[in-house]
Design a protein that fits this description.
SprT-like domain-containing protein; SprT-like_domain; six-stranded antiparallel sheet; single chain; 9 strands; 34% helix; 205 residues; 6 helices; 2 domains; SH3 type barrels; 23% strand; alpha+beta; three-stranded mixed sheet
Length: 205
């Protein structure tokens, strides 16, 4: 694929004003970039193998701004690995510094929405292992989702006792335990721990 076509493919997934910057990171670091199917367990990942080299994947169903955050999260893993190999913690200070350095040129209201820039500036001081773990970022990124017929809600915004659907389960929201809610599966009575920032579909009861 020639360079102009590859940049065009980046425009399909990233906010237009930052797509070329993201392309240049791919061009500089020469990794295999895969737009993956939706995965409930993760938004993206970074892998390295001696035979295949570097690989980064990002879920296809993310809106452009969430796609950008996930992409730079994973590129930060690659940059950290290039410098330190496996000698540092995956989400330690070295990764945090790399993540901030990669994002820093984009923290400009001429490139990204002002409300997102404000949240990112705070988040990137001490980013957590997943963007889903930082509620203000989850909330601002959700604003850019394309509305669907069954609009998703963030679990922590729902009253206790609300019945909702998650995957193929019908659950009722219970008490908060640290970062997860104890939820009762309506049909079986089994208990599940559900992340407080999970996107769920509320049900009429």
């Amino acid at each position: 694929m020639n360079k102009s076509r590859k940049i065009a493919s980046f425009l399909d997934h990233f906010p237009p004003k930052v797509a070329e910057y993201c392309f240049n990171l791919w061009d500089e670091h020469q990794f295999d970039f895969i737009v993956s199917k939706k995965r409930d367990s993760k938004l993206g990942d970074f892998r390295f193998s001696p035979s295949k080299g570097f690989q980064i994947t990002v879920n296809h169903n993310l809106n452009p701004f969430a796609f950008l955050v996930t992409y730079l999260h994973e590129v930060a893993h690659l940059v950290t690995y290039q410098k330190y190999k496996n000698k540092v913690n995956p989400h330690g200070q070295e990764w945090k510094d790399a993540f901030l350095a990669l994002f820093d040129p984009l923290l400009d209201v001429d490139l990204l929405p002002v409300e997102l820039v404000q949240v990112l500036k705070t988040y990137l001081i001490n980013p957590v292992a997943t963007s889903n773990g930082y509620t203000p970022l989850v909330e601002v990124l959700k604003k850019f989702d394309v509305p669907t017929e069954t609009e998703a809600s963030l679990l922590f915004n729902l009253p206790e006792g609300t019945t909702f659907k998650l995957k193929n389960l019908i659950l009722q929201k219970g008490k908060l335990r640290r970062t997860r809610y104890i939820c009762l599966e309506v049909h079986t009575g089994k208990l599940y721990l559900v992340a407080k920032n999970a996107q769920v579909q509320t049900l009429d009861t």
